[in-house]
Every structure is written in C-alpha cells, then in structure tokens.
Amino acid sequence: MDLKAYFKKVREIESTIPTAYVVIASHETSDGGKTGTFTEVSKGLAARMIAEGRGWLASDEESAAFRAAGAEAKREAEALEVAKQMHFTLVQPADGRSKPGRGLKE
Questions:
Q1: What residues contact 19, with CB distance under 8 A and at least 6 apart?
Q2: pTM for this structure?
C-alpha cells in the first residue's frame, strides 16, 4: 500500500467535509460490519473510513433522522432517570400517634 497516496486521498476527502462532525453510514465488511449502520464521527475519522471503503457520508435527511432519533433516546433516558429519583414523604397524624391496627399498639 502506498501510504503517500492513501494519506493524500484522506486529506482530499477531509477537505470536502464542511463540518467538524458528520454522520456516516457503514458498508458491509468482512469482519462483521453491517451495511447502513449510522454513526456520528469527526471529519478526520469519516475521511479515513471513506478512503478505506468502509462507509459513506449520510445524506442531509439521513443525518437529520439519526440526530432526531438520538435526541429522542436522550429524552427518554432522562425521563427514566428522573422517575428513578422520585422521593416520598411519610406524614404522621398531628397528634403523633399512629392509627389503631396499623402496627403500634395504643
């Protein structure tokens, strides 16, 4: 493998990527990679994956759908975390005694 040509290709691809982070979709690979798995990566990593033939840049619609799904998953996870942290307060009657038949004898 010609490393100069490889890194030149990576730099060329990286220069065409407009933002610092992009969504890429994967190609099927011999080591078990699946086609169409979306991931958000830095533009340097995206350029290497594209140069190696392991992925392609996702379209604007695919990127928006991926990010919306991630935002929804984050909201759901936060809601579950809040639900775990519910606090309850037990209040006794004003006279300080419990009601008959509820544990303490009078």
A1: 43
A2: 0.68
**Any idea what the Cα angle at residue 34 is, between residues 31 and 38, rounded to 5°?**
125
- Largest Cα separation within the chain, whole Å, is 90
23: exposed, middle or buried (Cβ count in 10 Å: 0-12, 13-18, 19+): buried
Q: Report d(CA 49, CA 54) in Å as an integer.
A: 5
Six-digit token string for 98? 């419990």
Reduce the DSSP state of residue 42 to 3 states and report it: strand
Work out the number of other CB atoms within 10 angstroms of the CB of residue 36.
12
pLDDT of 71-102, one tens digit each? 999 999 999 998 888 677 777 777 766 565 55
- Pairwise CA distance, residues 24 & 56, whole Å: 6
Spatial separation of the C-alpha atoms in residues 42 and 7, rounded to whole Å: 16
